[in-house]
Amino acid sequence: MTIGLSFIMGAIAGSVSFFMLGLWWPVSLLVGLVAWFAFGLFSLKMDSAFTLMSGAILVFCISLSVMIMRSSDQLSGLQYADTVDEEGTEFRYPVPLLENAPHGEEVYRAHGCVACHTQQVTHEGVEFDIKALATEKNHSAVKEAINRFYRVTGQPASGGVALGMPVGEWETIALGASAPDAAKARGFLSSAGASVDVQVRFHGEDLEKDEFSNPNGRGWGKRRSVARDYLFVERPMLGSVRIGPDLANVGARLSRSTLMRILLNPKLIRNDSKMPQHRFLFEVAEKGDGDELIAVIEGDEEVYYKPTKDAEALVEYLLSLKSANYPLEEAPVYQPFTSSLPKSTTPTEEVVESEDVGASSAN
Questions:
Q1: Per residue in 252-305, pLDDT tens?
Q2: What DSSP character marks residue 221?
Q3: Are residues 294 and 352 in the same domain?
Q4: Helix (H) or strand (E) holding 41
Q5: What whole-number distance in Å separates Cα of residue 69 and Cα of residue 71?
Q6: Quick one: which of 65, 91, 190, 356 has the most CB atoms within 10 Å?
Q7: At 352, which CATH number?
């Protein structure tokens, strides 16, 4: 094989590794070089279909193996992370399944719920809005930092900055900036001594609805799902078909009684539901026989149903699914401008606090 043809084979191998298998570009480059050397320097001849297919399979296997090893290396280092719940209470995330929830996970798997429901919230993108506050002491440096940011990113001046940066007032520097541009803005402004406030906005059909930033949101989660969410799941049931809604955050959306009624007969909650009934998870009972009876009108009479142990365990498992509800460093939730919120602190404390929040949001 000629050097030119072997180079083409190496380029194809590297391209497959990078674009199709998603390998890190240095690894893809190494795969391409190995293929080039194998076909060119070692005079490996491609004089038969068998040799051609063997070479292609070898390149694919090497690339796939490197991808698996790299992914394993990345995920094996995942540990607990500190986060906060809806009341602002800090705790370590993720929380392992407790009490009946592990059995409920097996019930979920056994009845094929994953065939109709996913457990992965996605988002389509993230945008950053940036504000800055300058004092008389650093006003000139802040103006120069803002002009430098506009020159580097090519963004037009917005708000009052176009007329001149005011002193002692929060002013919008950029709207809808990308993550790299937001990092540049934070770096330029912080180095000039300005206070920085960053608003993080996500958009995607799976996320919560917002009239301004995400009007088409379904409300399935506050953030996207990430690998840390499945740290204690032996076999994640991500799913690929959404005949029903995503369940990654169903425990934060629905109550225990609502989930019980949905299992018994989904049309009790939603008339146009496509979900099949799961009455085999319930037993007919007499009125007063237990605390968790569900009354259903069937014909002219009222029938009472009592959940079995499998139904109770399944609901416990569903209530534990709140992964897309808590912010993580790699998956933050919507963060509004803190400088726009009413505060009871002094002006000096406001500046320090907004700097800390802006720095954490830009990261």
A1: 999 999 999 999 889 888 888 888 989 899 988 888 777 778 888 887 788 888
A2: B
A3: no
A4: none
A5: 5
A6: 190
A7: 3.30.1390.10
Q: Are residues 246 and 289 in the same domain?
A: yes
Confidence of residue 362 (pLDDT cuts 50, 70, 90): very low
Tens digits of residue pLDDT in 304-332: 889 999 999 999 999 999 988 888 877 87
Alpha-carbon span 48 to 86, nearest angstrom? 65
User: Do 37 and 61 have their domain in common?
Assistant: yes
Q: 179-191 and 139-153 are packed helices; what angle lies between their axes, rounded to 10 degrees?
A: 160
Strands 301-307 and 282-285: antiparallel
List 307's β-bridge partners, or say none: 282
Distance of CA 284 to the CA centre of its chain: 42
Is 159's pLDDT higher than 80?
no
pTM for this entry: 0.67
Burial of 225 (0-12, 13-18, 19+ CB in 10 A): buried
Q: Is residue 224 part of a domain?
A: no
